[in-house]
Amino acid sequence: MALLNENYLKLPGSYLFAEIAKRVTNFKAEFPEANIIRLGIGDVTKPLTPAVIDGLHKAVDEMANPETFRGYGPEQGYNFLIEKIIATDYTPRGVKLEVDEVFVSDGSKSDVGNIQEIFGVNNRVAITDPVYPVYLDTNVMAGRTGDFINGMFENVTYLPCNAENKFIPALPTEKVDLIYLCVPNNPTGTTLSRTELKKWVDYAKANGSIILFDAAYEAYIQDPELPHSIYEIEGANEVAIEFRSFSKTAGFTGTRCAFTVVPKTVMALTAAGESHPLNKLWNRRQTTKFNGTPYIIQKGAEAIYTPEGQAEIKTVVSYYMDNARIIKEGLESIGLETFGGENAPYIWLKTPNGMDSWEFFDKLLNEAHIVGTPGTGFGPSGQGYFRLTAFGNKENTLEAVERIKTRLSL
Ligand code: MLT
After folding, report:
1. Which of 22, 112, 128, 227 is least crowded, fewest Cβ atoms below 10 Å from its Cβ?
2. Residue 117 DSSP symbol
3. At what angle do helices 307-333 and 394-407 cross, to 10 degrees?
4. Residue from 15, 17, 385 to probe ligand 1 pocket by mutation (most atoms less than 8 Å from CB)
5. 25: domain CATH number?
6. Shared-domain flag, residues 150 and 268
7. Is residue 5 part of a domain?
8. What is the mean pLDDT of residues 332-352?
9. What's the CA angle centered on 82, arms 192 and 193, to 5 degrees?
10. Are the C-beta atoms of residues 141 and 113 closer than 8 Å to each other?
């Protein structure tokens, strides 16, 4: 009889967004006429921009021609895309990268989920709380945690982020090995300053830790003082791996393209104390388990880096950030306390009257027919909070705010 990976049994019922989908399906079955507005999962609604569509079309035509047809590409991604990424996203910020330090992939969810494979099972993991569930769940699956007790996994360092500490995680009081940071943050929509990030880089250097830095929302940063990459912080190229995605930047949630930066200077130790570059391990992992992002998709992503592409995606980001403003101002006008939404497409709100997060989820769905995400789905410190996304279309966003103002009994 085959034995299963018992670590999977430690995980609570279902992945957060699957649980939300189930509740919405049940609600729809009961109230088929209800016009539901979805501000739950952070999925984009604007179509791919003209430059991207043009890039995709041209690549499709190339695939139809024996002279330009492509089969397997490099597992790490094509240089035509990697060179543009470096030249546009990093060089102007003073970050030096080589092409073999950037790995193109089919999405940041896969990369942030898979990265833990290159680390030993005995590493201690630190996560901010609340947190994007993928970081934690994938470490549970790998056996890097204990059991789930009272809403928390044993052997994990939770770093609470709440209104009291302005959503700035404190450095751990115990020694941790792997640190997940998401900046700008999903779910709280808050950010960390250069000074705060420097504290983490210094901590990692002093403790031999690795920072797994998820920058999927960097395009939403409006404040010119805020860093977009961890590598803007001195010394980060020795201790950090960075994840970037085209999903939220350029509408690629369904198209799938992202990249991960693993500088060759980031090292980790064997049990015997020998130092190895993580770049080599990630390259080995990707070349073994991944056959590369499709050529067509990478050509679509490359088009983002043309002048037209850059202008178009800026317009789309502004559109969503205007939604964020509409939501934030609307909620505040009826006395709700909100956070984030200024440098990120998420608004994090304090549930009214001490209501618990799932209770508020049900209330919003029942009274206003709006789907959001309960804070507690992101971790114990999310209790009493709720997330709304700015990725809806403008009409729905305006309508949702109107419904919250007029239909919700507070
Ligand atoms: C979210 O809603 O948190 C995101 O859509 C999840 C993701 O990007 O996978």
Report:
1. 22
2. G
3. 10
4. 17
5. 3.90.1150.10
6. yes
7. no
8. 98
9. 10
10. no
Does residue 287 share a domain with residue 302?
yes
The pLDDT of residue 106 is: 98
Ligand 1 first shell, C-beta below 6 A: 41-43, 109, 132, 186
Atom of ligand 1 nearest to the CA of 43: 5
Same domain for 368 and 258: no
| Tens digits of residue pLDDT in 186-230 | 999 999 999 999 999 999 999 999 999 999 999 999 999 999 999
* pLDDT tens column, 343-355: 999 999 999 999 9
Query: pTM value?
Result: 0.97
Nearest CA to ligand 1 atom 4: 42
Strands 156-160 and 102-105: unpaired
- Count structural domains, the chain: 2
Distance CA 85, CA 100 (A): 12
Last residue of a domain, one of 306, 322, 341: 306
pLDDT grade for 19, boundaries at 50, 70 and 90:
confident
- Averaged over 123-144, what is the pLDDT? 97
CA–CA distance, 330 with 343 (Å, rounded to integer): 18
Q: How many helices (H) does the chain have, and how many strands (E)?
A: 12, 17
Q: How far is Cα 315 from Cα 67, in angstroms, rounded to an integer? A: 36
Q: How far does Cα 356 stand from its chain's mean position? A: 24
Which residue range is the domain that position 33 belongs to?
12-47+308-407
Residue 7 included in any domain: no
- Protein residue with its CA nearest to atom 5 in ligand 1: 42
Q: Is the peptide bond before 187 cis (omega within 30 degrees of 0)?
A: yes
| Residues 248 and 322 both lie in one domain | no
Task: Give the Cα separation of 402 and 395 in Å (integer).
Answer: 11
The answer to whether residue 3 is domain-embedded is no
